[in-house]
Amino acid sequence: MMIRSIHWLLVPALFQACSPAFDDEEHEDEPEELEESTEAVITCTPRSGVGYESGDRRTITLVSVDGKPVEINTANAFSNMRDAAARAGVRIRVNSGFRTNEEQQRLYSCMINCNCNSCNTAARPGYSAHQSGLALDLNTRNSGVLTWLNRNASRYGFRRTVSSEPWHWQYSGARATGPCSGTPPAATPPSSTTPPPSSTTPPSASTPTTQALEIVAPRAGGHYANGVWFKAKTNGTVHHVRYDSGGYLFGASEDAGAEFAYRRVFNTLGQHNVTVRGYDREDREITKKTVTIYVDAGEASQPEIQLVDLEDGMAYRNGFSLQISPMEGVASVVYSAGEYGLGVSRDTANGFPVDVVFNEYGARSIIVQALAADGRLVSQKAITIVIVPGTEDGLPPAIRFMSPLPGDQFGRDTIQLMAAGSDSVTRVVYYADGVEIGASSDAEGAFPTSRQFWQVGLRHLRVIGFNQHGDVAADQTIDITIR
Ligand SMILES: [Zn+2]
Question: Which of 218, 236, 365, 414 meets the CB 3.0–4.6 Å disulfide criterion with 452?
Answer without folding.
Answer: 414
